[in-house]
Amino acid sequence: MSGHDSLNALAIDTTSDCLSLALQVQGEPAGSLYERRGNAMARTIFTEIDALLRRGGLRPAELDLLAVAVGPGSFTGTRIGMAVALTMAQVNKTPLAGVDTLRILAGQTDPGFRGTFHVLLNCARDEVYHAPYRRRENGALETLAPLALAPLGALLPELTRQPPGMPAVVRRFEPAQGDLDPLLAKLPRVPLAREHPDGACLLAAALPLLAEHGFGGLPPARPVYLKSEAFRTWRPGYAAPGTGH
Fold it and tell me: CA 94 to CA 96: how far, in whole Å?
């Protein structure tokens, strides 16, 4: 196809207990799902994808792009979505774009917002995944640094140094320890345009990757698991601020 704005694309996100799907046909939204599934995720995902494609009048082989959320998130949930997306991509030879959860959360922000903000995602114990983003003057979303892992107590002074503090998107998983809530409550919030980090946010993040790398140059989609030890193993040599590793 001559451009990336008229693609048939499917987004798959199973990193939380919600099954999130979105379909784009010839560049236009053609259906979506965002529904809590929990333990039923694996039993229902194929049925829901099939129904969504049928409503859009597409066969899997007619998809130009698959987008999948790679985590961090639920260990089992992330594996389900990754397995489905990788299988569909291999069987149909469809390009696959992997997008991390924090970039999807950043996509919830109001395009009218301008400036720098942080996305925080609770991890185990007192740690959070975090990454800084910026909304440019044209509304485009820019990632300022790679996703990292740090104790919230070590990160918070940086975020609150300049009053009224750096605004943040804080979502997705309940804290493992109750004392995280008061700390997170200190941070101002970025205005959101979407209620959930749904498939539309995932597609919006995947399309620029395709524009940057092309159909044949997309980086391999690799999982980012919620447990800090798995993350550090998956990103060898990467020392997240404040982790001491």
Answer: 6
Backbone φ and ψ for 12, nearest 5 degrees, come out as -130, 120
Tell me: cis bond preceding 236? Omega within 30 of 0 counts: no
Mean pLDDT of the chain: 83
Is 218 among the domain residues?
A: yes
Residue 178 has pLDDT above 70, yes or no: no
Radius of gyration over every alpha carbon of the chain, rounded to an integer in angstroms: 18
Q: Is the peptide bond between 197 and the residue preceding it cis, with omega within 30 degrees of 0?
A: no
Q: CA 94, 97, 98, 104 torsion: positive or negative?
A: negative
Residue 239 inside a domain? The answer is: no
Residue with tokens 């196809």, as numbered in its chain: 1
pLDDT tops 80 at residue 163: no
- Of 203, 131, 200, the closest CA to residue 166 belongs to 131
Contact 218, 95 (CB under 8 A): yes
- Distance, CA of 229 to CA of 234 (rounded, Å): 9
Evaluate whether residue 219 is within a structural domain. Answer: yes
Asked whether 58 and 25 are in contact (CB, 8 A), the reply is yes
